[in-house]
Amino acid sequence: MKPVRKAVIPVAGLGTRFLPATKSVPKELLPIVDVPAIQVIIQEVLASGIEEVIFITGRGKGAIMDHFDHSYELEDTLRRRGQTDLINQIEAISRMVRAVSVRQKAPLGLGHAVLCARSIIGDEPFAVLLPDDIIDAKVPATKQLVEQAERYGSGAVAVMEVPEDDVSMYGIIASERMTERSHRIYAMVEKPKRDLAPSRLAVIGRYVLPPEIFDYLEKTKPGHGGEIQLTDALQALARDRGLVGYEFEGDRHDIGDKAGFLRANIEFALKRPDLAPALIEYLRGRLGSEL
User: Fold this and answer.
1) 58 pLDDT more than 90
2) Which residue in 109, 192, 215, 271 could disulfide with 197, CB within 3.0 to 4.6 Å?
3) Residues 162-208 pLDDT 10s
């Protein structure tokens, strides 16, 4: 298996659940404490040994690429003020990653978004990270999947057990357990009814895929709303070439949901020595001494 050197990050969504904040600001730039959510994702990419990022963008998402570019006016102002620490932080962001963008001109689904990256990915395996999922882990979740893909010589997707009442919100796998955390997937069902779900193992927004997935995506017929579902292509890939589901180690935060976004901010703030004492004191005052 070739090394995984590239990552695809779909960022074309409108972020309607966070209106009005996302009317003029891409949801991916909403902060986790004081770091844009997309920067948290990029930090995972880099910590996984990946060199290049392909953003699949839509109209109004140019600010995401701008965030990882130089801001000469800002840098000059900070330099004249002598704010060296802030200059170093800003310049580090502009050097953080080699990124390109590809426009998804119509909202035709996650499968179509991934397919948009074909000409840049070429014949290499690659990672896909969905920015609504932030995974806080000692070993980056993407790196965990790269290791699984290398071990088994196949694609690998992140899975986690979800409550029975939540299975209809996810793609659910049917599988055979290989190790404590690894599963050989033989079927996937997109958002099944609770009584029809083959398991409680849900696919979460991290994937390491072989280049052959593009062939399957091109053959995938549009489903509801004219969208090309990645799940359909993954099921065909699992059938023909094998696919591993891996129960990753780490804490997942669904920041596409308002409550999940708030939880992520609290959890990340509690890891910050400069913020944790004041936050804990506040929470104790609000919630009582049991905290």
Assistant:
1) no
2) 192
3) 999 999 989 999 999 999 999 999 998 888 898 888 999 999 999 99
Token pair, residue 221, equals: 């017929």
3-state secondary structure the chain: CCCCCEEEEECCCCCHHHCCHHHCCCHHHCEECCEEHHHHHHHHHHHCCCCEEEEEECCCCHHHHHHCCCCHHHHHHHHHHCCHHHHHHHHHHHCCCEEEEEECCCCCCHHHHHHCCHHHHCCCCEEEECCCEEEECCCCHHHHHHHHHHHHCCEEEEEEECCHHHHHHCEEEEEEECCCCEEEEEEEEECCCHHHCCCCEEEEEEEEECCCHHHHHHHCCCCHHHCCCHHHHHHHHHHHHCEEEEECCCEEEECCCHHHHHHHHHHHHHCCCCCHHHHHHHHHHHHCCCC
pTM listed for this prediction? 0.91
**243-268: b (≥16 Cβ within 10 Å) or e:** bbbbbbebebbbbbeeebbeebbeeb
Contact 144, 135 (CB under 8 A): no
- 6-256 is classed in which CATH architecture? Alpha-Beta Complex (3.90)
- Rounded distance between C-alpha atoms, residue 171 and residue 169, angstroms: 7
